[in-house]
């Protein structure tokens, strides 16, 4: 499915379940999302993390609405708590099996995102491993001169910002030297098409979500 | 002809990098730009690539490329990519140039074959070695099919084979009618290939006469035979026993090796073979399997803080070494190092003058030229006076004079303090004579050799 469609579908579904209260619908969406993730060969470790981390938020909401309310409503508490899982799992579904490059291309080609943003963000993401490495290097370099830079040391962040600024400028020059001109026309070598099936699948999914929201209460 | 007329360029209004420069560079020829580090070679190339004054500095005068489309290969290979793999970078560049899909396929094939990067095409760029990245960067320019290739010390992190390979490839491009302009400190391998040499000296660029050019290239022609001893029963500083080092792939698989204390050991080997990874393991930035000891203590079990007071690494990229902002602050920090018992203010001043850094004390370290940064970096690490110094390509980007000064400093300091030096280099010219041992890194093994 087109990455942009997946993204907007997740946003619409999340919005809809935020505006209505239907525990069964939430559970069905969560179930389908988990099956979809498993079907797309999600790493079990990542799946467990995605299920465990939101537990904190979900438990807090549940506790507030069930244990610390004068008139507790189990149905309502569970519904709101399960929403957290709908959000995280649907977003995970959007990102599994799609690379950041595909997203950038899709938003540039299909949704007219200015190429400056698309490639700027992409390049910044590609810099993340470099930044991590750079921070480690800064710490090592400091220790070799008898200075210990802890995780909260201002010098470390100063260096990190310097590295980031420097990378940003180099990046702008690198993009330009590879022919990039802001707002200029670009051709499409790798196309991310919007297929009829994208519309059909999205329509069907939205239809079922709405039917579930209307009927299962 | 590329014409430059009355060109003046400054970064900060006070120091003119280029002063009223007029020059013509013949097109469809292979030209070399030589000169001491910090003289403005990179600046001129960036002006020709139309990156300056857009990104830095102020310019007066005229530059006429005669309608040529130019692209530039940067000094630091890792800084010229937007995308994560070579294939995606080529697609990005060709989309920018409004090339269609059919032409893309042809150009990709051509570029990949030209730079021989088929095995690298879908590998992440940030996992490649410096030499591999330069090869990829060249492939991108070939795919872009530009007319003018501006290359800023493109071979600094290439081994001799890769260097020869790339220079011959560039010669082939010239035959196809491309214009090549390279800045380089090393002049080997250019004989019979280079048409013109432009010498940069004191803000003036002169074109050398044919005789002077041939003379200069002849002087730098390969090369002397060196002789090294084999280590006898000395005290080892590092001992490797069944050591394995991996980074994306297995790089080192060493049964047994000792690196001797108080000696200078040279390490050579092809690009991407794992020399820097070995250093990173020795300075605790990379984990290893098996045993790697420092004076019989397992390195992984030593406290990083204490260990790094003993073992220092001079990084390939100079700016990685800096912690403070100004040159003076950096020098002060090194001076205060607990190991430093030798470098007093007069000593440091003497070194600064020798390295031509004495006028830069108030400058921000990042505003120094590539060569100046390198010199400062090595000086800082010499002053810090660790027992062991690992030097990763210490002379890359340095002109002959600066390189000799650096080596003198290293030598003097070693004689006084009995430092253990381990040096990775591609360029044996200035360094080989005073090294005790030579390790060759090949087939995941380090072996002592005599030549």
TrEMBL record, chain A:
Transcription regulation in keyword set: no
Residues spanning the membrane: 6-39, 46-68, 74-95, 146-165, 199-216
Keywords attached to this entry: Membrane, Transmembrane, Transmembrane helix
Pfam family, one: CbiQ
Its membrane topology: Multi-pass membrane protein
Subcellular location per the Swiss-Prot or TrEMBL entry: Membrane
Highest taxon of the lineage: Bacteria
Keyword Transmembrane carried by entry: yes
A GO cellular component entry from the record: plasma membrane
The name this protein goes by in its record: Energy-coupling factor transport system permease protein
Source organism: Lactobacillus bombicola
Automatic annotation (TrEMBL), chain B:
Places the protein is found: Cell membrane
Protein name (record): Energy-coupling factor transport system ATP-binding protein
Family: Belongs to the ABC transporter superfamily.
Protein keywords: ATP-binding, Cell membrane, Membrane, Nucleotide-binding, Translocase, Transport
GO molecular function: ATP binding; ATP hydrolysis activity; ATPase-coupled transmembrane transporter activity
Record-annotated ABC transporter domain positions: 2-227, 237-449
Domain of life: Bacteria
InterPro entries: AAA+_ATPase, ABC_transporter-like_ATP-bd, ABC_transporter-like_CS, ABC_transpr_CbiO/EcfA_su, ECF_ABC_transporter_ATP-bd, P-loop_NTPase
Stretches that traverse the bilayer: none
Membrane topology: Peripheral membrane protein
GO terms for cellular component: ATP-binding cassette (ABC) transporter complex
Species annotation: Lactobacillus bombicola
Membrane among keywords: yes
């Amino acid at each position: 499915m087109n990455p942009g469609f997946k993204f907007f579908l997740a946003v619409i579904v999340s919005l809809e379940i935020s505006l209505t209260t239907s525990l069964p619908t939430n559970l069905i969406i969560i179930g389908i999302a988990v099956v979809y993730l498993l079907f797309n060969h999600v790493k079990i470790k990542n799946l467990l993390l995605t299920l465990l981390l939101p537990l904190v938020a979900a438990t807090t909401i549940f506790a507030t609405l069930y244990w610390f309310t004068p008139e507790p409503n189990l149905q309502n508490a569970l519904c709101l708590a399960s929403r957290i899982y709908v959000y995280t799992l649907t977003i995970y579904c959007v990102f599994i099996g799609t690379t950041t490059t595909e997203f950038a291309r899709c938003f540039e080609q299909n949704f007219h995102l200015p190429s400056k943003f698309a490639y700027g963000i992409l390049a910044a993401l590609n810099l993340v491993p470099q930044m991590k490495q750079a921070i480690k290097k800064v710490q090592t370099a400091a220790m070799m001169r008898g200075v210990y830079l802890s995780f909260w040391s201002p010098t470390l962040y100063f260096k990190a910002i310097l590295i980031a600024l420097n990378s940003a400028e180099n990046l702008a020059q690198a993009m330009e030297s590879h022919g990039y001109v802001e707002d200029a026309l670009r051709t499409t070598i790798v196309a991310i098409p919007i297929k009829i099936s994208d519309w059909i699948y999205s329509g069907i999914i939205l239809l079922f979500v709405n039917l579930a929201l209307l009927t299962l209460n | 002809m590329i014409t430059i007329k009355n060109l003046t360029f400054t970064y900060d209004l006070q120091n003119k990098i280029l002063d009223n420069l007029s020059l013509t560079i013949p097109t469809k020829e292979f030209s070399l730009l030589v000169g001491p580090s910090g003289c403005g070679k990179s600046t001129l190339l960036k002006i020709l690539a139309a990156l300056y004054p857009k990104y830095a500095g102020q310019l007066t005068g005229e530059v006429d490329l005669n309608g040529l489309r130019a692209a530039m290969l940067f000094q630091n290979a890792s800084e010229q990519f937007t995308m994560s793999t070579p294939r995606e970078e080529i697609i990005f560049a060709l989309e920018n140039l409004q090339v269609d899909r059919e032409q893309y396929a042809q150009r990709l094939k051509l570029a990949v074959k030209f730079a021989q990067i088929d095995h690298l095409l879908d590998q992440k760029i940030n996992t490649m070695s410096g030499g591999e990245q330069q090869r990829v960067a060249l492939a991108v320019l070939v795919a872009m099919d530009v007319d003018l290739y501006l290359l800023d010390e493109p071979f600094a992190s290439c081994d001799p084979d890769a260097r020869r390979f790339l220079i011959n490839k560039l010669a082939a491009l010239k035959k196809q009618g491309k214009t090549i302009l390279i800045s380089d400190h090393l002049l080997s391998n250019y004989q019979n290939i280079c048409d013109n040499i432009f010498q940069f000296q004191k803000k003036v660029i002169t074109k050398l006469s044919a005789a002077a050019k041939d003379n200069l290239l002849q002087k730098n022609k390969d090369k002397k035979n060196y002789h090294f001893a084999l280590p006898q029963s000395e005290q080892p500083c590092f001992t490797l026993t069944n050591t394995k080092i991996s980074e994306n792939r297995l790089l080192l698989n060493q049964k047994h090796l000792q690196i001797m204390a108080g000696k200078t050991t040279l390490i050579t080997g092809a690009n991407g073979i794992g020399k820097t990874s070995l250093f990173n393991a020795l300075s605790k930035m990379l984990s290893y399997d098996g045993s790697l000891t420092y004076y019989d203590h397992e390195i992984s079990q030593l406290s990083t803080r204490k260990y790094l007071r003993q073992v220092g690494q001079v990084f390939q990229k100079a700016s990685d070494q800096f912690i403070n902002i100004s040159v003076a602050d950096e020098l002060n920090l090194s001076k205060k190092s607990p190991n430093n018992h030798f470098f007093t203010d007069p000593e440091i001043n003497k070194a600064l003058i020798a390295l031509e850094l004495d006028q830069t004390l108030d400058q921000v370290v990042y505003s120094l030229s590539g060569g100046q940064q390198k010199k400062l970096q090595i000086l800082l690490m010499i002053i810090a006076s660790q027992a062991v110094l690992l030097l990763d390509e210490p002379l890359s980007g340095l002109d002959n004079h600066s390189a000799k000064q650096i080596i003198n400093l290293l030598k003097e300091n070693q004689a006084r303090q009995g430092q253990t030096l381990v040096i990775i280099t591609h360029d044996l010219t200035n360094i080989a004579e005073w090294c005790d041992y030579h390790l060759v890194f090949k087939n995941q093994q380090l072996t002592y050799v005599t030549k």
